[in-house]
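Q: Could you predict the 3D structure of G-protein coupled receptors family 1 profile domain-containing protein?
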Amino acid sequence: MNILSFTTQSTAAMASSLALLDCGIDLDVANLVIIGLYFVLFIPALLLNIMAAWISWKLKTKSSFIVYLKNLAAADLLMTLIFPLRAADWLPGAPQGLQAYNCQFGSVLFYLCMYVSIVLMGIISLDRFFKIVQPGGKLLGQSALFGKVVSAIVWIVILSTTALPTMVLTNEKPKYNAAAELCMNMKNDLGKQYHTVVTIFCNVVFFVVLIVIGFCYMCIAKRVIRSYRNSRSTNVKRKKPIKSRVFIVLVVFLVCFAPYHITRFFYVPQQVSNKINCQWASLRVAKDITLWLATTNVCLDPLIYFLLCRGFREKLYDLKIFGHWFSMTTQQSREDTSF
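A: Sure. Here are the predicted structure tokens for G-protein coupled receptors family 1 profile domain-containing protein:
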């Protein structure tokens, strides 16, 4: 007798099937760990992103860079607000309606915000590159109007090519059976094919942005250090923070997003086949953990705002949260070249 017929919860169904396969993987335990990780991340992420959104809102929109910063803060805050929905979906005994809603809307909005953030980080790096390395880059668009147009295009393109089609094609009645994933059961054949296409598209976007960010910030670092040398500056203390800024931006992006996109490349074929097996189970756990790691970016983005935007640092100083240390840091940032 198939023990899955005794349950209506997809997570329990998956765990029962895996017990039959004796894979040595308990999805119930893995889900509880992921739930805990999301709730642990939620409070600091919410506080940091509310603060970042408030400070960004206070900044005068005089350039395309500030526009990108505000859109990035909005995407991070919206993504943070979806954390409880994602965590609740994994809770034991979660309502079937909540699981279905999350499949069709919650997860889609989550990924929408994540990839808008990724693309905007790439655009911000290009903006800094044209401003610092190629001063003539202002001709390519440093105005606030240009930034608003580019930001709108980013939201519209990602929404129309990934989010909306996924919502429309995830329209089947939820089936709680022996298949591995509820969300895949809610997709028709076209939806499953489109899911594969969207995954490939998003992976390509990530690696292109990674290359762009690496190239731009390496060039920026070389240009700023060269400018110090040309001015015969021997102040090593000023060169060190610049190298650190570049290093932190690259590491944050690489550490947060690379593991997830590498794992997803191997996971999606198993996900689309929608069959329970040990390989699927191990990749599913790896995907969930690396996706959580990717979401930690919402806590690290405010650090990037601090490093790249002098106006953000000054507004944060006005809050007087960090006392004398922050006063000294802000004073130094006024003397150094800001990214």
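Q: Anything worth pointing out?
A: Residues 1-20, 328-337 have pLDDT under 50 and may be disordered.
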